[in-house]
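Quick note —
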Amino acid sequence: MDEAREMTVQAFELSELLELPVILRTTTRINHASGMVTLGPLRKRTVQGQFDKKPMDYVYIPAVSRRLHPRLLDKIERAVTLSDQSPLNRIEGSGKWGIVCNRLSYGYVSDTISELGMTPPVPIPVDTLPEVPARPPNLCPGCPHRATYAAVREVFGDEAIYPTDIGCYTLGLLPPLHMGDFLIAMGAGISTAGGFSRATGRKVVAFVGDSTFFHSGLSPLASAVYNNHDFLVVVLALQAGSAQAANMVMLGALAGSRVLPIDLKTFREMIRTRTKPQFAEINLIAFDLGTFAVNFSSTE
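Predicted structure written out below.
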């Protein structure tokens, strides 16, 4: 983790030196890791900037781009040189053979060498490495999206088209759920839903997470409303991310379909009085989502 901190500092310094953006690319395992770090001196923040008008440097019409392209290639060469000379590159041990690692692969190699009882530098025949079984990605056990998907499929069935979007809920495409028929880009689940609905005349249910919805889902939704497209959008909100709330969606679907001999008003009163006050409202929202889905499916 301390190395990640140092790389972040150097990323800002490199960006200022080359006058280029530097992308700080982390990985899932780094994002979920924690550890002790040693903080260095904090530089004084520069909060006031200035803008020098240089349209022949900043407005990239073809004539400007042709002139700036050689300058960009030169910066790339400088970046390669600086990367090769970085103190973050190091060689451990000595010998005829070596393993080139970067990022987390270094940790994997180090752990493997230790588990085999070896100390670097050592050659490692491939057939002596332990076989790691492949683990396909899947929704987490107990994930409320499972129940949501099951409830929606119960209402709309296999004939409906289910565009999905970018997020962990994309994994709903895997068996046994099979709740993802099309994915192309962030926010495109809603926009493609309009196209599928208009072109096929079939029921269409688009799934989108709450963050993606606010990031890039509002514009295609406005377009769908303007063009009177007929489809359902299910926003998988983190606020409803509990197994209890997901079960409430299914309960709402059952209640809305009149399968149970209890009216909706009684169901709502039971939810309001038998759940903790801080959770009552979100459970009612989940319940209403289920009843709405049933009513939507019955409207032709």
